[in-house]
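User:
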Amino acid sequence: MSTATSSKLYLAITISLIVGILIGYGIGYFTIPQQPSPTTVTKTATTPTTTTTTATPAKKVTLTVIGPWAGAEMEAFQQVLNKFMEEYPNIKVEYRIYRAEDLASILPPQFEAGMAPGDVIFMWGWWIKEYGEKGHIMDLSGLVNPDEYIKGIFDPVKSGNKIYGLPFTASAKPGFWYRKSFFKQHGLSEPKTWDEFLQLLEKIKQIPGIEAPIVTGDSVGWPISDVVEHFIITFGGPDMQLKLINGELKFNDPQVKQIFENYIVPLIKKGYFSEPIEWTKAVEEWWNGKYALYFMGTWITGMVDDPDDLGFFPLPGCKGAVMATDYLFVPKYTKHPEEAKLLAKWLATEGQRVHVGTHAGKFATWLKVDINDHWAPMQVVYKKLKTMTPLPDLDDSVGGEWQKLFWDQLKLLWVNPDKLDEVLNTLTENFPSK
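Assistant: Predicted structure:
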């Protein structure tokens, strides 16, 4: 994920939940993080556990951190930066908001000119790897111990023996959120079967003041793609999600197409989904009762007035959930490389402990963060997702221009569902060769 203006889930209870989840390719079960035991973290003699870039700078410097978070999410992240500045008073950290989608256009020409708009920048993992291989991003190998993190989480930012990015916290995309008070007021309950889900939508549609049962978030593309991925995982299984990511299965394959034809398109045509609405505005209108359900990531817990009034359910029968990790990197063009690496390391370790304790709605990917360090509502989410298979985000994993195409084609489908064949063929024909 990315946020517009702008982890996963054993009862060894190891934060494997987020990790396997987050990164995705190591499929296991969501588990709740605890202090790692000797069997959880296997150290090797060749893996460094310390770094020389931890000394407090002798003179004051100012670093710029660039991330996608705004509003309540920015306030939560600012708490992390404030804690860092308390521990390192000679380093001032300023935060600037840039969406990953915008950075994808801004950073390449700046890199070519030997410049960068920030010293520590949050971006998609695949993008960090690509531009690290092109020589624009610092190799952070040795800065942290990969064995202290969820298995496989470094894969998206690793090339050979070089690690170009570090993981921060992660979020899950577990299902449809609703207000408990709304469900109680209208005698609604979580569906246990697909037929019950359809009955719930029809009942909600008849409630006075409801514009549509499900609000569709938009403006950045990914909210709709998250919904589609959830349907794919539910009715095609976790394996279909992975095969689509790897290009082993085409979007116009009959088994993929039938998920759209039998489940997604009929809901759109019956008016169960709203037309696309700017996603943060959609949060407000959903919370105020204009819509009853919203498929969104766990960060929504920090965007509402009363998180204790939140409930969620996946589609009946769903056995997997997408997890999304936030990755950071240090551009080679920073004027303060040692201080930037110090901040990067801190964010990837102790900074996670601070972040998961805020209302950001995130999970730690560093195994040394305990479940009890997390905000109470996120502990509840952990427990509810513990039997789900963690999976990577489809469009984030594929990346590149296809990601934007995926978003645009799904928005087209939402407003014109009769174009299903055209949409699926376009996604298939333009899928990057592996």
